[in-house]
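Appendix B. Extra example for self-study. Work through it before the problem class; the solution is given directly after the inputs so you can check yourself.
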Amino acid sequence: GAVVSQHPSWVICKSGTSVKIECRSLDFQATTMFWYRQFPKQSLMLMATSNEGSKATYEQGVEKDKFLINHASLTLSTLTVTSAHPEDSSFYICSARAPGQGYQPQHFGDGTRLSIL
Amino acid sequence: SQQGEEDPQALSIQEGENATMNCSYKTSINNLQWYRQNSGRGLVHLILIRSNEREKHSGRLRVTLDTSKKSSSLLITASRAADTASYFCATEAGGTSYGKLTFGQGTILTVHP
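Solution. Structure tokens for the complete assembly:
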């Protein structure tokens, strides 16, 4: 079945560091991918929609300059948390839907746990 | 986007019992999906029910949808310890929101052996 891979699974770094998270669709091409954030014991919140070959669209309240999204190919989207601070510590998850499937379930990556010291 | 509500927030049962989780949402939808999340992991899709469907089954799972009340329920029958996880409902509105999911707050299910 369709699989979405996310890397790395865990990052611990110092405040001020920029962190890049990769999301790959392994056996299908995804023109659109989605990035979610989940704080401890909370639900998932959509951050942005990553569009292959064009700019990402961000949800209200999400800083585009803080969370840079690049969807350079049909199988890879990256989320870069720039100059990360402790309040950016969270669980980041990406998802994608294989093309031509209409309203079908999303495939989620295993998530990246980001801890900023 | 607004989050839906799920209840209960936490549910603790014994193996073999049934578990029922409820989800309410606020806007019109194209479909509603249920996902499972083991601690610290990604999401696993369980079942998708379209807005024109009222009930759907998959193995030990039964999902109902009442669009007039903007609510859905997930029933897990004959629960097992391995069913212990967080369960989320997610709605998809369609149109310009194609692919975007709005998640409920989730229910933490604990099944005791």
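Self-check: Chain A touches chain B at residues 6, 32, 34, 36, 42-46, 49, 59, 91, 93, 95, 97, 103-111, 113 (CB under 8 Å). If your reasoning did not lead you there, revisit section 3.
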